[in-house]
Every structure is written in structure tokens, then in C-alpha cells.
Inverse folding.
């Protein structure tokens, strides 16, 4: 059994004023007022944490970085290890979003240690979940698969629906990336159902994206697009900038798999612009890969495509995305099988690829 979803990152009086489905513009306005009215350093830390999370979800990277560091400094002044852990969790999550996965690991590892010492069970669980997600994004499934399962078991035991949805969709993603489509679909559909029953709209949007992905791979294009439209409506209602950009990238994936390359090119161009605006290098690079593949299908010069794939391979290696590099290698092999002349060494332009916006360490 599980209860309704809640948002433990909104603490103190903010916990009563805000919920898991509050729009992030609302969160930002409420938390900013609370920050201005804060009477203690701990209250300032809690308000700054909510400001950081709202800005991160809205794609405002610099503002999110300033806010989580302020939250950490205020928590340290207050001597509250739990609040310090939450601030580092926010910072680690932002670092992962910005493509700086080693920094994310460092910050989240410190957050786990602080939370463990503070007795804040939720901060500890969220920080462990952050570490698990970072490893999953890197493709290090052997290292984090068991941790995902443990966190799912904890979520079930404690009735924390939001955590269950997160862990279940993460496990589903690993099955999907390793070819276990039936199991992935089962888990994504269950996480979408749990999210709906728990009123976790954000979790449902991410889970629907996963369902659509697997259905698309299995050839169910129209059903996948319909689910992505449902998820997009949730993203727009809640001001989920990053989730909306990933939704658009997935829509482009669906078009590409269906052989609708012009629609794929247009939609990858949209997601690329969105990711660049929020300075999210992982999304930028993934959108560029899809765009390169779509353009190749539409007749782009083969050598130009191979040169861009070389640059993207370098970028995925820098970020540490194993699954994405595998996709580059597979498409490059497909192109080179056409037995054309050797391609010149690629010229990588960091500006075009989208240079990472890495928050400074606290």
C-alpha cells in the first residue's frame, strides 16, 4: 500500500503551502517570499532549497546554482546536517542535469553521509536515489541495479509512492536499454498507474514517456504519440521545462522509428533549442544525435554526418553516457558499411555541441 505523493524538499512552513503538483512558477514565488521573510538561518536554508529546485525544474541553471549553495551555507551556519544534505542533494541533481556526472557523484555522496549522520531518512533516501540515477544515466547498470531494487523495496515498505514511481521507472529504463522490452513496458505501465493513483502528476508524465518509448520500439506509433501528448499537457501545466524538452525529444524518436524523418528533424530541432536554452548538455547532445541521424536519412552528405558523429562520440565520452555512445557506434557502422572514402578527422565545436554549465563546488 502507499499514500498520496508528497514533496519532502518543501520543508517547514513551505511544506504546508506547496505540494508535489504545485507549478514551479508558484513554488518559486512562494519560496522567494518565504526567503525574504525568513527569521532564522534554517528558515533561509529551507526557502533557498525550494528556490533552487523551482529554478532547476524551470531550466534556470545559474539561479538554481546560486540558491542551492546559499541553502547549504545557511544550513551549515545553523548546524543542521539534514538541511545540509538536502542542499547537496539539490546541487548534485543540478550537476547531473548539467552533464557534470562526476561532480554529481561527489555532491550526492557527501549528501548521503550527512543525511546518515543527521537521521533524516528522507534526505538519505533521496540522496541514495540520486546516486543510483547518476550511475544509471552513465550506463553503469551493474553498479546501481541492486540499489534501485533496494530503494523500490524501501518505497513499498514505507508507502512512499513518489519513490516507488522513481525506482520502478529507473528499473524499467535499464530493462528497455538492454532489450527487455516486455518487462520494461510492464514496469513503466505500473509506475504510471501508481503515479496516477497517488496524484503524482510529474511522475506520471515521466512514466508515460517511458511507456511511449517502448510502444514505439514495438511499432505502436499512434498510441505512443497519444501518450506523449498526455504527458506534454502535464509538463506544461506544471512548468516542467526539462521534462517537456525530453518529451519532445522522445516524440522525435517516435517519428524517426516510424520513418517520418522530416517530422523527426523538426522535433529534434525543437528539443535542441529547448535544451540549449536551459543549458543541459546531455539533452543537447542526444538531440544532436537524433538530428544528425534524421538529416542523414534525408540525404545529408555522408562525410559530414560521420564528422558530426565523431564530435558527438567525444561529447558522450566526456559526459559519460555509455548507451548513447553505443548508439553513435551503431549508426557510424551502418554509414561506413556503405564503403565510402576515409573520413577526415572531425572538428568538434564546443559551442555548437553546447558547453556544460557546471555549478561551482560549495
Amino acid at each position: 500500500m502507499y499514500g498520496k505523493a508528497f514533496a519532502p524538499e518543501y520543508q517547514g512552513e513551505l511544506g504546508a503551502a506547496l505540494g508535489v503538483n504545485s507549478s514551479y512558477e508558484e513554488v518559486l514565488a512562494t519560496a522567494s517570499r518565504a526567503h525574504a521573510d525568513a527569521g532564522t538561518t534554517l528558515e533561509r536554508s529551507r526557502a533557498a532549497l525550494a528556490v533552487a529546485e523551482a529554478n532547476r525544474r524551470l531550466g534556470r541553471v545559474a539561479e538554481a546554482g546560486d540558491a542551492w549553495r546559499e541553502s547549504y551555507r545557511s544550513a551549515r551556519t545553523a548546524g543542521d546536517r539534514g538541511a545540509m544534505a538536502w542542499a547537496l542533494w539539490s546541487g548534485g541533481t543540478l550537476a547531473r542535469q548539467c552533464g557534470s556526472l562526476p561532480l554529481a557523484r561527489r555532491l550526492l555522496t557527501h549528501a548521503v553521509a550527512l543525511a546518515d549522520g543527521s537521521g533524516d531518512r528522507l534526505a538519505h533516501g533521496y540522496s541514495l536515489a540520486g546516486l543510483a540515477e547518476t550511475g544509471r544515466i552513465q550506463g553503469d547498470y551493474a553498479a546501481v541495479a541492486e540499489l534501485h531494487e533496494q530503494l523500490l523495496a524501501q518505497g513499498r515498505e514505507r508507502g512512499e509512492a513518489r519513490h516507488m514511481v522513481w525506482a520502478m521507472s529507473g528499473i524499467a529504463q535499464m530493462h528497455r536499454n538492454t532489450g527487455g522490452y516486455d518487462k520494461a513496458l510492464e514496469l513503466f505501465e505500473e509506475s504510471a498507474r501508481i503515479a496516477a493513483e497517488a496524484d503524482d502528476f510529474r511522475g506520471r508524465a515521466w512514466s508515460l514517456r517511458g511507456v511511449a518509448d517502448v510502444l514505439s520500439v514495438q511499432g505502436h506509433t499512434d498510441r505512443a504519440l497519444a501518450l506523449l501528448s498526455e504527458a506534454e499537457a502535464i509538463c506544461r501545466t506544471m512548468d516542467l521545462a526539462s521534462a517537456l524538452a525530453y518529451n519532445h525529444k522522445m516524440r522525435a524518436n517516435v517519428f524517426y522509428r516510424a520513418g517520418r524523418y522530416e517530422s523527426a528533424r523538426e522535433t529534434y530541432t525543437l528539443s535542441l533549442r529547448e535544451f540549449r536554452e536551459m543549458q543541459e548538455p546531455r539533452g543537447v547532445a542526444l538531440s544532436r544525435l537524433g538530428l544528425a541521424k534524421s538529416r542523414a536519412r534525408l540525404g545529408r552528405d555522408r562525410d559530414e554526418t560521420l564528422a558530426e558523429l565523431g564530435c558527438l562520440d567525444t561529447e558522450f565520452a566526456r559526459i559519460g553516457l555509455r548507451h548513447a555512445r553505443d548508439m553513435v557506434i551503431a549508426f557510424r557502422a551502418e554509414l561506413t558499411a556503405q564503403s565510402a572514402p576515409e573520413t577526415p578527422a572531425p572538428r568538434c565545436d564546443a559551442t555548437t555541441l553546447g558547453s556544460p554549465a557546471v555549478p561551482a563546488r560549495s
